[in-house]
Amino acid sequence: MLRELNDEGTTIVQVTHSEKNATYGSRVVHLLDGKIEQEGRY
User: Fold this and answer.
1) Cβ burial 7-41 (10 Å sphere, 16+ → b, else e)
2) pTM of the full predicted structure?
3) Which of 1, 2, 25, 35 has CA 20 to 30 A from 9's CA?
């Protein structure tokens, strides 16, 4: 359902500690102490 909404133009923000769940997104931002540590795309 979330992927369909995103395909229609809705921005989805998912916060997770799970690398597996992070793969559902097309863009991943890793934070450390509130600062961007790494940014990438799946």
Assistant:
1) eeeeeeeeeeeeeeebeebeebeeeeeeeeeeeee
2) 0.66
3) 35
